[in-house]
Amino acid sequence: MLPRDFSAIIALGTAVHGAGYIDDSNMSIWYNKGILKSADSPEINANFVAYLDDILIGFRLTYAINQWEIDVWCSPELWQQPSEKVCYFKCNTVDENYRGYGVGSQLLKLSTQAAIKQGASAGVSHLWKQSPGNSAVKYFTKCGGVLIKEHPDRWNELSKQGYECPECADECHCVAAEMIIHFEK
Q1: Which portions of the chain are predicted below pLDDT 50?
Q2: Which domain of life is it from (predicted)?
Q3: What is the C-alpha end-to-end distance of the chain, expressed in Å?
């Protein structure tokens, strides 16, 4: 993923997740949280995109270790990993016409490989339980994810700030499944 991909990412993210979830104001911030810079090694980017015939069909945003905040929606006491060794899988998005072909799994695999190079031993995420057919949780489980805790109203405050959940009419009351994948070395 590179900054030249941002406008296509925002368009796909809005189509899949609803207006106000991803926009110009947060795209650059989220992107930069996925890049680990160090003086003794090359820059490692844990964010990835998937194109087919020059059309963006999917993207994965992943925050590098120590480049994200553990907030009230996180349960580090249940992770069985030191929190400073856990990356955050922020967003995995695949165009509805290309789901079921392994695009999301491949993006996760690439991000996991980059996160391991960044020093991560695990990755945590909040999966949208109300995704069609609970596909988000199913895909993450298939990729090795384990349920840690469920968080009702995870995106409620964001919906009060302009986010338009594709599932809820007004305020978002969707449940987030906090899940973790432990990386094998």
Answers
A1: none
A2: Bacteria
A3: 25
Length of the chain: 185
pTM, to two decimals: 0.87
User: How does strand 122-128 pair with strand 86-94?
Assistant: parallel
pLDDT at 119: 93
In the three-class reduction of DSSP (H, G, I as helix; E, B as strand; rest coil), residue 25 is classed as: helix
Q: What three-state secondary structure class fits 110?
A: helix
Q: 49 forms bridges with which residues in the sheet?
A: 59
Q: Which of 99, 94, 92 is nearest to 179 (CA)?
A: 92
- The letter for the amino acid at 173 is H
Structure tokens at 77: 């006491």
Rounded to the nearest angstrom, the gap between the alpha carbon of residue 88 and the centroid of all alpha carbons in its chain is 7
| φ, ψ at 42 (rounded to 5°) | -70, 160
pLDDT tens digits, residue range 106-141?
Answer: 999 999 999 999 999 999 998 877 766 777 888 889
The DSSP secondary-structure symbol of 174 reads: P
Q: Is 133 left (phi over 0), alpha (psi -120 to 50) or beta?
A: left
DSSP structural state of residue 34: T
Structural domains of the chain sorted by starting position, each given as residue range(s) with its CATH number in brackets: 3-182 (3.40.630.30)
